[in-house]
Amino acid sequence: xxxxxxxxxxxxxxxxxxxxxxxxxxxxxxxxxxxxxxxxxxxxxxxxxxxxxxxxxxxxxxxxxxxxxxxxxxxxxxxxxxxxxxxxxxxxxxxxxxxxxxxxxxxxxxxxxxxxxxxxxxxxxxxxxxxxxxxxxxxxxxxxxxxxxxxxxxxxxxxxxxxxxxxxxxxxxxxxxxxxxxxxxxxxxxxxxxxxxxxxxxxxxxxxxxxxxxxxxxxxxxxxxxxxxxxxxxxxxxxxxxxxxxxxxxxxxxxxxxxxxxxxxxxxxxxxxxxxxxxxxxxxxxxxxxxxxxxxxxxxxxxxxxxxx
Length: 309
Ligand SMILES: NC(=O)c1ccc[n+]([C@@H]2O[C@H](COP(=O)([O-])OP(=O)(O)OC[C@H]3O[C@@H](n4cnc5c(N)ncnc54)[C@H](OP(=O)(O)O)[C@@H]3O)[C@@H](O)[C@H]2O)c1
Known about the structure:
It is a single chain. This protein is an alpha/beta fold. It folds into 2 domains: about 1-120 and about 280-309, Quinone Oxidoreductase, Chain A, domain 1, CATH 3.90.180; about 125-245, Alpha-Beta Complex (Quinone Oxidoreductase, Chain A, domain 1), CATH 3.90.180.10. The protein contains 10 helices and 16 strands. The chain has helices at about 40-50, 115, 120-135, 150-160, 175-180, 190-200, 215-225, 235-240, 255-270, 290-295, and strands at about 1-5, 15-20, 30-40, 60, 65-70, 85, 95-100, 105, 140-145, 165-170, 185, 205-210, 230, 245, 280-285, 305-309. The strands form 3 sheets. Strands 3, 5, 6, 7, 8, 15 and 16 form a 7-stranded mixed beta sheet that branches. β12, α7 (about 215-225) and β13 (about 230) form a beta-alpha-beta unit. The chain starts with a strand and ends with a strand. The structure holds NADP nicotinamide-adenine-dinucleotide phosphate (NAP).
């Protein structure tokens, strides 16, 4: 039996329930994983709220985990019982055990903790996709809205590797973190465009909106001359109307499945070699999943939030 989290309805954290269920045996091309850490992402909250539509209830949540291979189905190569692994994309990651497609399961570098490994691939793959979509490279001055979040932290580190100057927005308490990751912090809020101009009088060449606010959109449009080099990870009608590039889900967005899937093993390699760090801000026991969602919903986690079964 496994302990799993289900949403019994669409709504606030109170719709989350923790129940026991049987785990099926892995079929061909699948493995069963004993989960040691399950990453929480804002997308899980949006799914719970019904913002991504209304799939059938009860609804499983969680798309990335780290753990140990407990059973291997037929037609699986390169994975064995006892292997420490990280998996993304999975379905129903908020669980003590689950069955995943082996093509989404990767060996975890020994230097990465389970907690770190469970919080790397979704945000990292999003960051890679955003940088590619905005065609960011050496010589660019990039504005990143919400630079201190899970995605922002990976994006800043990956941008630094590309030789890019990054100006990152955050609240004042995130400034040290943004600096540590190689970017120049600027406070979001009224007057943002002027503060960015003061730091980068020669202008910014590209922008990535991870905040999803009207302000991030307006300031990006004001400062970046080429609209095709503005990318948002929170696609919405206003962004489509303004002609900027949305990534992930949402109206007019590019899901980027190929580029994101291709990024996963490289992200793990870089993190294993210490070239990328994953900051785990807080862990919660699986049974306290509702509190974990409340914490993420505050929007200032300053790192990854992880559930421990
Ligand atoms: N499209 C995709 O494929 C995709 C993938 C992953 C994530 N996302 C979306 O991207 C967003 C960020 O995800 P995440 O995992 O990085 O979230 P997160 O870890 O919860 O971080 C939230 C970030 O938002 C900042 N913030 C809070 N209030 C703000 C405001 N009023 N203006 C500007 N920034 C503000 C926070 O900065 P301080 O803490 O410094 O205040 C922090 O940097 C979420 O909406 C998520 O759903 C999209």
